[in-house]
Amino acid sequence: MKKKAFMVDIDGVVCEHVPNEFPEKMKAALKLEGAREWVNSKYDEGNYVCFFTARLEEHRNITEKWLDSNGFKYHQIIFGKPRGGNYHYIDKAHVQATTFKGRFSPMVSVIHGIEVFED
Predict the structure, then answer these.
(1) Class of residue 49 by CB neighbours under 10 A (exposed 0-12, middle 13-18, buried 19+)
(2) 84 near 47, Cβ under 8 Å?
(3) b/e string for 54-67 if b means 16 or more Cβ within 10 A?
(4) CATH number of the domain that residue 23 is part of
(5) Whole-angstrom Cα distance, residue 46 to residue 42?
(6) Cross-strand bridge partners of residue 49
(7) What is the pLDDT of residues 56-77, one digit of tens each?
(8) I need a surface site. Which of 32, 57, 105, 119 has the fewest CB within 10 A?
(9) What is this structure's pTM?
């Protein structure tokens, strides 16, 4: 099986959503059910796990402590993802996106139309 690089958001995906304006709430954020098990299973399968978050670099220490104390395995955290959603990612490599709908259930393949650049 080909290994994957998983880019996983933090707020609203592995823990309850905490806005950047309230960093004091980040240390006590509730972990979402199934999040640690799902993330760690991807890590244990040999995939690359990178948290990609709109939290700011100044939140690094509290974020790393929270992830570690809640038992998450990961390789990297990237801070400063643009806020607001409606993301459109462009890369020369194949990109697969998954919209998180609130729970870690089995992933299934669904074909949807995508935008591509004309040849």
Answers:
(1) buried
(2) no
(3) bbeeebeebbeebb
(4) 3.40.50.1000
(5) 7
(6) 6
(7) 999 999 999 999 999 999 999 9
(8) 119
(9) 0.86
Contact 64, 27 (CB under 8 A): no
Instruction: Tell me the pLDDT tens digit for each residue of 15-57.
Output: 999 999 999 999 999 999 999 999 999 999 999 999 999 999 9
Nearest to 5 by CA among 87, 116, 93: 93
Sorting pLDDT into bands at 50, 70 and 90, what band is 88? Answer: confident
Euclidean distance between CA atoms 18 and 72, whole angstroms = 18
Q: With contact defined as beta carbons under 8 Å apart, do 111 and 102 qualify?
A: no
Domain count, the chain: 1
- Of the pLDDT bands very low, low, confident and very high (cuts 50, 70, 90), residue 102 is confident
